[in-house]
Amino acid sequence: MDLSSFIRESVNPITLCFESIRSRDIEKAIGLMRSYLKKRKIFTIPVIHEMTIDGRPKLGVYVFNANAEGALFVWDLSQSAQVETVMFTKKFDDAYNAAYNNGQFTYELLVQAKGANTVQMLKLVEAVLTGKTQMTDASVRAQIKDAQLFESVAMTDKEIQITEAKDPHLADLERKKANMYQRIRDAKKKGRDFADLQAQYDEIMKELADARLSVRPNVTVSSTTDADVESAQSFFEDEERATPEERFSDMKNYIYNVIAGIRPLALLCGAPGVGKTFRVMQAVKGSGKEQNRDYKLLKGKITPSALYMALHDFKDEGQLMIMDDCDSVFKDPDAINLLKAAYDSSDERWVTWGIAAPIPMSEEMANMCDDAVFDEVKKRWYYPKEFLYEGGGIIITNFQAGGIDTAIRNRALICDLSFTVDEVLDLIRGLAPKIKPDVLSTAAKDAALEYLEELAHKGAPCELSIRSFTLCAGLMMSDADERAKKRMINEQMRLQFTRSKGKY
């Protein structure tokens, strides 16, 4: 089934995607796009980005494939809601994180709709991200010409500036108010009855007033400064910055809150290679927890089904699920929904598997739980379609908190472990004697620390961490001369300095 048929059968009328519509309808249209693209193994970031470009309100929808290529759909909201441009990037993670943290989305190719509808733009994105069309100016132009879609504008090595916008629902109501006001004026000039128009105008004004009073992201609720708010803001700005050890102490307290069942989730965001995982595991094991009995440790990429299984297998009170560098879950709407259900603030946290196909369960696991489902026809055990989750969770990530779904942040105790260059050097200096004492000599560690300090104070592009220190100390123990040692360290620092600005 092609996309036109899919949308036509799913939503009637098809013009939902193209006419002036309210923000909740846009989300419905985007959900339709997400469902279609997912079948083509093109995945959508669940967070919709509100922005302005050249002073006009926009919505940004990010999609990506398994090769870490992606695109940004930009929906224009100033007149009629439709896809205005699509920006393609070969380095999706870098571009996505930079957009959220620095307001800049870097792309290789920009295509303007020039009147093409959303279905046609989706087909173009599908062609590029499934590999049918190369992500080059010439290939995209050829695709456009063959499909007789629209003209394109291609740019390389460019950036667009993105700033926060007002709520699109408010912008839509403002437009409706202006249009209705103009219709009333026209009716007055022509001597026509405008009572019905006035009633509609009053309804719009009432809805607009209600919308302005509600608390919405990126909307200024009051035009005056509240003295208490101003005082509180001043307090936090003047507050002395906590030391690294103080922040690690806070992190331990958050972990103990989860272990004690006071809070269901701790979210630990921070710089790589500063000992987050080591300290977490130290605290968990120090509380008497045993791996694969009291807690499950998940590392790396994880699918929604694997996440559901882990949550079920460690669902009891006192049990923990620890996710270390499982950043793929923040890009999958199904995984996010599972986390939201598991760590909700309600008294009973029910986790549901709403997909038709059940998840197989081993006979060994089935014998250990009381809610396994046995299929008499297939003679197989399956996980239940829902279960009550009473466990806790600890998520360790290099993402900044702002790049993680708001609903997850609202359910968690958040610890920000971002450090300055000098703080990282102090951490390394304090831990150096304990780092591989049987392998790395004290002289090599001293030389490595001294050279890293030299690079840092020169402003060299290098990632300072315990890992990079260990690497440098190892190179300092080689038989090469001093110049060669520094050359090798410089090369490693340069080649490893590829972390995007969206992560620490």
Spell out the blueprint of helices and strands.
Elements: H1 3-10, H2 23-38, E1 43-44, E2 49-53, E3 56-64, E4 70-76, E5 82-89, H3 92-102, E6 104-107, E7 109-112, H4 118-129, H5 137-147, E8 158-161, H6 168-189, H7 195-213, H8 227-238, H9 244-259, E9 265-270, H10 276-286, E10 295-299, H11 304-313, E11 320-324, H12 333-342, E12 349-352, E13 360-361, H13 363-368, E14 373-375, E15 380-382, E16 386-389, E17 392-397, H14 406-410, E18 413-417, H15 421-431, H16 442-458, H17 466-476, H18 482-496
Parallel strand pairs: 9-17, 9-18, 10-11, 11-17
Antiparallel strand pairs: 1-3, 2-3, 3-4, 4-5, 5-7, 6-8, 12-16, 13-15, 14-15
Protein architecture, described:
It is a single chain. It is built from 18 helices and 18 strands. The protein is an alpha+beta fold. Strands 1, 2, 3, 4, 5 and 7 form a 6-stranded antiparallel sheet that branches. Strands 10-11-17-9-18 form a 5-stranded parallel sheet, with helices on one face. Helix 15 packs antiparallel against helix 16 (442-458). The longest helix is centred in the middle third of the chain and has 22 residues, at 168-189. The protein starts with a helix and ends in an 8-residue tail after the last helix.
Mean of all residue-level pLDDT scores: 77
Biggest beta sheet summary = 6 strands, antiparallel
Q: Report low-confidence residues grouped into runs of 5 or more.
A: 1-23, 148-167, 211-226, 499-504
Q: What's the alpha carbon Rg, rounded to whole Å?
A: 27 Å
Distance between the termini: 43 Å
